[in-house]
Structures are given as C-alpha cells and as structure tokens.
Specification:
Blueprint: H1 4-57, H2 60-69, H3 74-107, H4 113-139, H5 143-169, H6 173-196, H7 207-210, H8 214-251, H9 256-274, H10 278-297, H11 301-338, H12 344-350, H13 354-369, H14 373-395, H15 402-427
Helix pairs in contact: 1-3, 1-4, 1-5, 1-6, 1-8, 1-9, 1-10, 2-3, 2-4, 2-8, 2-10, 3-4, 3-8, 4-6, 5-6, 8-9, 8-14, 9-11, 9-12, 10-11, 10-13, 11-13, 13-14, 13-15, 14-15
Length: 428
C-alpha cells in the first residue's frame, strides 16, 4: 500500500526546493534591478499586501483541502465558493482604492507607496482563484500539479522580470516596483492554466454545477473562518508592525530614511535567509492537514501521533542543519545571493531561536486538522498583542530595529509553546 503522506511530502519538498531556488534567482534579479530604494519601498508595503491577501483568500485553500480529503462533493464546493470569492475581492479592491492615500501618507509615512497599493489591489482576485484550485488538488493529495504549477509560474515570472522591469526603471523606481507587483497577475494565470491540464479527463461542468449551494458554502466557511482568523490576526500584527516601529523610532530621534532602509534590510535580506527552510516546512504542513484529518476522523490516534512526531522531527532536523550553516556563514550567503553584507547582525541574533519557528507551521496545521483552529486563533492573537507591545517598549530604548528583532523572538517562543501544549491536551 502506498504511503500517500510520505509520497506527497517528498513531491512537495522536491518541488519546493526547485521553486525556492527559482524564487532566489527572481529575488536576486529584481533586487539588483530596482536597487536598495526599490527594495525598501517593496518591503514597506508587504505587511499591507499580506493582510489583504489573507482576507482575499479567506482561508479557503485549507477548508477546501479538508473537505475534499473527506470525500465531499468537490465540484459543488468549488463552484459554490468561486462567486463568494469574486464578491469579496471586488469589495477589497474598492476599499484599497479608497484607503490607499491614507495608508501611504499617514500610516506608512511614505507617499511613494500609493501607486504600489493600487497595483496590489488588482492582483488579489487572481491569487484567490489560484488558491482555491490549489486547495482542491491538496485535498486529493495530488501534489505534482501543485509542484509543476509553481515551477512554471516562477519561470514565467523570472522571464518577465528581465524583459519588463529594466524598461520600467527608465521611468521611475515607483513604476518599476508597481510593475513587479502586477507581474503576479500573469504568473497566477499561468499557474491556473497548468492546474486545468490536470483535471480528470471525464471532468465536465453542467449548468447545475455552477449554481451556488448554500449548504456547501456554510460547510466551507465553518472551517475557513476560524482558520483564516488565525492568519488574519497574525497579518493585522504584521500590518501594524512598520506603523508602530516607524512612528516610535521617529519619536525617539531616528530619521525616516534610516528606518525605511533598515526595515528593508531586515525584511528583504535577513528574514528571507532565516526562512529559507520554510519551503520544506510548508510542504510538510500542507501534506499534514488532509492526512491528519483522515486518521483523526477514523479515530486512529496512533497514526495521528506518529505523523505528528514525524513532522516535528523532520522540521527540527532540517532547521538545525541549516541554522548551523547560516550562523557561521551568514555573510558569505548574503554576499553570494544579494551582493551585500547588510543584515548579518540580525541573522546571528535570530538564528538560534528560529529552530523553534520551524516547528510553528506543523503545529498550527495539526491544530487545524484536529478541529482546534479556534484555539490556534487565540494563541496567535495573544502572540500578536505581545509582539506589538514588545516592539513599542523596546523601540523606546533607542536600539533601532533590534526592538523588532527582540519582539520576533518573544513571539516565536510564546506561540510555539502554547500550540505544543494545546496539541498535547488532545493527543495525550
């Protein structure tokens, strides 16, 4: 009998490795094309971008994955959710166009981000639609379509960056960064097209399928809302992070240009390197949800515990090996990848604590699969409040961006411990 969990995880890890390597090439390409100023602007709007992506997706991929894995009527689920997703995205686009002047000028203290926010709004529907289709294939435990779509999407994006962004740089940095954001529309459409090739040969759409089913919508939302609530709370914290940091650091005497530059270094260079193993962890976490859901529904706690231990052990080993290399060779990796040595101090300070961070993904996936998404939401909420308080307090000590670094450490320890404690209650 084939072990779908191991097979799915291996496919996702291999695909994730290729995708991550392509992602690094993409990052190297646009970092060198748009320069430090462009990177700083891009990083400044990322918290807002992440927040609106989370709202636009509404936790639908996880909900669809779970229901499809439980042999629900997948066609009815998909075609019931798509209209809801489109309405939600139209509302979000309207809100972003309405609020973007206030967000850019007042909250972010940088008027140049206005056009970037408008570009971001146009990308949301395409990301949402792609995520719904991904959820379907995850539920079927068919990981090859997901892997291939990611690779093709990245290759297309890389080609477009070399072709279009240098041309846009002739006009301005803001136009170039806006173009970089809008390229996601083409890459997401490419991903959707790849997925369509993997639909069953006998797949056909009838008129009755297109009609939304209220029961299916309720079933999906029952899972997705608690699930997205956790991510939403986390992204709300991420959204307020640069706002609180910028305003307090300016209050204690730091210049706006220094803050934007250092925040860009931290988020564009330091964190991406620390999170490099996350593609392994995400692959593992994605494969974990349908697998744990299936065994938990069968009341097979022995297999649930086994998968749980496997996930934590694999995550820890991957994280440990990478962090040892990163701690001693951070400067070499930064120079090789980004052609800079900026951010080494942040990496060395954070590296030991990121061993715990790598366990966070599997722990949260476990709670979702065990129908404890509500508990995960509470833990995330408390962690976000704690992180923002730590940022506010330590930023007053005039230690620059290190107030943010310390808040990251406190949040990781707090969230991982409480998630672990909650799972122990259920399984033991």
């Amino acid at each position: 009998m084939k072990n779908k969990f191991i097979k799915s995880t291996i496919i996702l890890i291999i695909g994730g490795l290729v995708t991550k390597l392509l992602g690094f090439v993409i990052k190297i390409a646009y970092t060198r094309i748009i320069g430090a100023e462009g990177i700083s602007l891009f990083m400044l709007i990322m918290p807002t971008y992440s927040l609106f992506i989370t709202i636009a997706q509404l936790g639908l991929p996880i909900a669809i994955s779970k229901l499809v894995a439980e042999d629900k009527n997948s066609k009815k689920i998909i075609f019931s959710i798509i209209p809801l997703m489109l309405i939600l995205n139209i509302i979000l686009i309207f809100l972003i166009f309405l609020l973007s002047p206030f967000i850019s000028s007042v909250l972010l203290n940088e008027k140049k981000t206005h056009l970037l926010l408008l570009s971001m709004a146009l990308v949301l529907p395409f990301i949402s639609l792609s995520s719904i289709i991904r959820g379907y294939f995850f539920g079927k435990q068919k990981m090859w379509p997901h892997t291939l779509s990611n690779i093709v999407e990245q290759v297309v994006k890389l080609g477009l960056i070399f072709l279009i962004i240098p041309y846009l740089m002739k006009y301005s940095i803001v136009i170039a960064v806006s173009g970089l954001i809008l390229l996601n529309i083409v890459s997401e459409i490419t991903s959707i097209i790849v997925f369509l090739f993997f639909l069953p040969k006998n797949f056909c759409i009838k008129k009755s399928d297109i009609k939304p089913d209220l029961g299916s919508i309720k079933e999906v939302l029952k899972i997705s809302v608690p699930s997205v609530s956790s991510r939403f709370v986390g992204n709300i914290g991420f959204f307020f992070e640069p706002i609180i940091l910028t305003n307090i650091l300016m209050f204690v005497g730091y210049s706006n240009s220094y803050i934007i530059k250092e925040y860009g270094i931290y988020n564009a260079y330091s964190l991406p390197l620390l999170m490099l193993p996350s593609f392994f962890i995400m692959a593992l976490s994605s494969a974990l949800v349908p697998e744990i859901s299936k065994f938990y529904q069968m009341r097979n706690l022995k297999m649930v515990r086994r998968r749980y231990h496997q996930a934590l052990l694999i995550s820890f080993i991957i994280g440990l090996g990478f962090n040892i290399i990163l701690f001693f060779k951070a400067d070499v990796l930064l120079k090789l990848i980004y052609n800079t040595s900026s951010g080494v101090g942040y990496i060395k300070f954070l590296a030991p604590f990121f061993l715990l961070f790598y366990l966070e993904g599997p722990l949260i996936s476990m709670l979702q699969a065990l129908n404890k998404a509500g508990k995960s939401l509470k833990i995330t909420f408390y962690g976000v409040i704690l992180k923002l308080l730590v940022i506010a307090i330590f930023s007053l000590f005039k230690i620059g961006i290190y107030g943010l670094v310390i808040s990251e450490i406190v949040n990781i320890i707090f969230v991982v411990y409480l998630n672990y404690k909650e799972i122990r209650k259920v399984l033991y």
